Amino acid sequence: MKEIRLEVIRAYPVYARLLNGPNADAIRQGVEQALSAFVDRVAEPGKDSTVRDELLRKFGRVEAYEGRDMGTLQGAYRLGARVALRRAKAVGRHYHLSATVVLAFADALFAYVEELEAISREGYVEVQSRAASEVSALRRKLLHLILAAPPLSQSTVMELCEAAAWQLPAEVTLVALRSPVPDQLEAGLPADVLADLDIPQPHLLFPGAMTPQRLATLEKALAGTQAAVGLTVPHDQAADSVRWARRALQLVDEGVLADAPLISCEDHLVTLWLLSDPPLMSQVAARELAPLRELPASRRDRLLETLRVHVSTRATAEQVGEILGVHAQTVRYRLRNLDARLGDRLTDPDHRFALEAVLRALDLRGGAGD
Question: Where's the PucR C-terminal helix-turn-helix domain (predicted)?
Answer without folding.
Answer: 303-361
